[in-house]
């Protein structure tokens, strides 16, 4: 008697990862539309179409979920691979690629909305601001510091304090326009203007640190 063969599962994304991403997407949407305090874990589970048991199996509490949502958004536009040193590519081009990714990230409408949410919430408690900084900007600074150290080891750059240089790089790329946009004094700048700004920022940075 022939045994009935079980149908082979088609290759695809595991269900638990799909549900985790659904939770992150729902959390990001609700945090931005309703604010952190007004968003409950129950509402996130309902919006994501998952059970509370599934939600808590991935994220212990709302703070943890918020941190992961911020990190996920940053990694989508600025993955860790972007900061890997590439010997076959000039350090100027690698930094330029990062600069364009930074501009794309900070002027993203959701990122601007999140910044404003954080500033408003920090008037009562800076805990949310610290969660945001650790999951987003701090990670990017540490990733760039890693790249700068590798570039120094390859004798492409000469930097005494890579951590400070990474901080300086991001400040140069963001410029004053980012503050103007956050405060509503300026609409999101056009790309041609930002290209000129990035060129000037890179020229200044490399003039200080090129080996």
TrEMBL record:
This is Transcriptional regulator, TetR family. The keyword DNA-binding applies. One of its GO terms (molecular function) is transcription cis-regulatory region binding. InterPro entries: Homeodomain-like_sf (IPR009057), HTH-type_TetR-like_transc_reg (IPR050109), HTH_TetR (IPR001647), Tet_transcr_reg_TetR-rel_C_sf (IPR036271), TetR_C_Proteobacteria (IPR039536). Keywords: DNA-binding, Transcription, Transcription regulation. Pfam families: TetR_C_7, TetR_N. It comes from the Bacteria. Residues 40-59 bind DNA. PANTHER family: HTH-TYPE TRANSCRIPTIONAL DUAL REGULATOR CECR, HTH-TYPE TRANSCRIPTIONAL REGULATOR RUTR. Residues 17-77 form the HTH tetR-type domain.
């Amino acid at each position: 008697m022939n045994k009935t063969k079980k149908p082979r599962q088609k290759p695809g994304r595991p269900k638990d990862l799909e549900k985790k991403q659904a939770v992150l997407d729902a959390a990001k949407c609700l945090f931005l539309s309703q604010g952190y305090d007004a968003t409950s874990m129950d509402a996130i589970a309902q919006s994501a179409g998952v059970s509370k048991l599934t939600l808590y199996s991935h994220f212990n509490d709302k703070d943890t979920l918020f941190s992961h949502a911020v990190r996920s958004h940053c990694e989508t536009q600025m993955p860790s691979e972007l900061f890997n040193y590439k010997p076959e590519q000039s350090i100027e081009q690698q930094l330029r690629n990062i600069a364009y990714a930074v501009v794309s990230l900070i002027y993203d409408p959701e990122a601007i909305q999140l910044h404003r949410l954080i500033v408003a919430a920090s008037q009562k408690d800076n805990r949310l601001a610290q969660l945001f900084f650790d999951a987003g900007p701090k990670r990017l600074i540490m990733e760039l510091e890693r790249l700068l150290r590798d570039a120094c080891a390859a004798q492409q750059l000469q930097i005494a304090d890579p951590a400070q240089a990474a901080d300086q790089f991001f400040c140069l790329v963001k410029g004053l326009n980012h503050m103007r946009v956050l405060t509503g004094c300026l609409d999101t700048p056009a790309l041609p203007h930002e290209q000129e700004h990035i060129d000037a920022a890179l020229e200044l940075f490399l003039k200080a640190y090129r080996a």
